[in-house]
Design brief:
InterPro entries: Haem_peroxidase, Haem_peroxidase_sf, Peroxidase_pln, Peroxidases_AS
Radius of gyration: 29 Å
Distance between the termini: 116 Å
Order of helices and strands: HHHHHHHH
Largest sheet: none
Helix content: 25-40%
Structural class: mainly alpha
Strand content: under 5%
Family: Belongs to the peroxidase family.
Cofactor: heme b; Ca(2+)
CATH architecture of one domain: Orthogonal Bundle
CATH topology of one domain: Peroxidase, domain 1
Shape: globular
Oligomer: single chain
Keywords: Calcium, Disulfide bond, Heme, Hydrogen peroxide, Iron, Metal-binding, Oxidoreductase, Peroxidase, Signal
Pfam families: peroxidase
Number of strands: 0
CATH class of one domain: Mainly Alpha
Number of helices: 8
Length: about 240
């Protein structure tokens, strides 16, 4: 009886432990208003530094958007692209897909300093800084960014350093084979109903919209008769011209 009771207690403890771990992993969902009460000055501080950086160098807006794009490969937008190499692990900043291709790290550092000063502490994760900075670097498109990402302390591993699109070094060979290559990784096919800002950025290329109507030259009449020319008959051209 004693062994059975001990076994039951052990099973109950194990079930409770798994329940606590599952609750802790899902306890903090992302929320666009995550910093409204925690630090209301966080997002305005990010936007101010981004606007100043783009005013000095206009192409920095596209660079911040590209930095966020590379950060999201391949384990999600976790800010791991900001990690430098250490004696214990290899970071993603100098990986092949990112080196000589991704820039704007100095702007992210300035944003982080400004946010820490505005919030009086390290309350905003680097992943949220990168995501919000990418949003603020886009002009004429406004969308909510869900924040509350955890602080990352490790890189994504070999798949994070090898995944993603080719880096700048791989695109500079003039004699390289330019035929399309299959992707290194298979992206998931399922996507949420709201696709975020991508739909707005792709809108000029959407096939559902009507094509832009180019101006047509005015129709001119026959110079001899003053009448409009008759429409040419449909069909193949004759082999010989009749006299």
């Amino acid at each position: 009886m004693a062994s059975r009771s001990c076994f039951s207690v052990a099973c109950a403890v194990a079930v409770m432990a798994f329940a606590i771990l599952a609750t802790a992993s899902n306890a903090q969902p992302l929320d666009p208003h995550f910093y409204d009460k925690l630090c209301p000055a966080a997002l305005p501080a990010i936007r101010k530094v981004v606007e100043e950086a783009v005013a000095v160098e206009p192409r920095m807006g596209a660079s911040l958007l590209r930095l966020h794009f590379h950060d999201c490969f391949v384990n999600g937008c976790d800010g791991s692209i900001l990690l430098d190499d250490t004696p214990f692990f290899t970071g993603e900043k100098n990986a092949a897909p990112n080196v000589n291709s991704v820039r704007g790290f100095d702007v992210i550092d300035r944003i982080k300093d400004a946010v820490n000063a505005a919030c009086r502490g390290n309350l905003v994760s680097c992943a949220d800084v990168v995501a919000v900075a990418a949003r603020d670097s886009v002009v004429a498109v406004r969308f909510l960014v869900s924040t509350g990402r955890a602080v990352v302390r490790r890189a994504s591993g070999p798949e994070g350093r090898a995944g993603g699109e080719p880096g700048g070094g791989e695109q500079q060979h003039p004699g390289a084979d330019l035929r399309p290559r299959p992707p290194r990784l298979q992206l998931r096919l399922a996507r949420p109903y709201c696709a975020g800002p991508g739909r707005a950025l792709r809108r000029p290329h959407s096939g559902l919209l009507p094509l832009h109507q180019l101006p047509r030259p005015p129709v001119q009449g026959d110079s001899h008769t003053g009448r409009l020319p008759r429409r040419a008959a449909q069909g193949p051209l004759p082999a010989r011209r009749r006299r």
